[in-house]
Amino acid sequence: MQTRDLFEYIFFGTEPKKLVRTTDPDSSHAAANTVDTSQLESMVYVMTKDETLKLALEALKQIDEAMPFPVAKLAQAAIKEALAQSEQCQCPNCKVTLHASDCAVHSGPAYPAGKCDCGAQRKPLTDEMVVAAARVLSDRQAAACNVDCGDMWKLHGNDFIDDARAALEAAHNIGEKK
Questions:
Q1: Does residue 178 lie within any of the structural domains?
Q2: Were both Cys, which of 20, 66, 104, 178 would link to 114 (CB 3.0–4.6 Å)?
Q3: Residues of the domain holding 99
C-alpha cells in the first residue's frame, strides 16, 4: 500500500451507513454504498483556499436563488472580498519587490531588519506599464486644461510616455545604490 493510499485509508472515507438514515429507502442505501467517499473527501482536503471560497460562493448563489435571505448576500460579499485579497506579504519592502519569507528584510521586530539576502528581483518595467502611467498623466493634464483627452494624447503622448518612463524608473530604483 502506497503512503498516499494509507493516508487516505486512515483519514478519509465516511462509512456508507453514515450517509443515510435507517428510514431511507433501499435505493438510498444502495447509492451510499457506491459513493467513493475517500476520493471525494481527499479532493476537498487538497483544495486551495480560493477553490474552496469559489465553491462556497457558488453554493450560496444557488441557495439564494432558490430561497433568498439577507444573510446570503452578506456572506457572498465577504467571500468575494476574501477572494480579492492578495496572499502575498504586504510589508513596505514587498510592495515593490516580493521577498522570500525568510529574507533578512523580514527579520524585525525580533532582530534588526537587514538588506535583502533572498535574491528577490523586481518586476521589470514594461512598455504597457509606462503607457498606462502616461495615459493617466495625459488625462489629468487634459482635464486640468479643459482639453479633449484624445487630442492631448495625439499631440503630447510621446512626451507623457517619456515623463512616465523617467518617473517609473526612478521609483523602480528606489533604495538601490548609485
A1: no
A2: 104
A3: 89-121
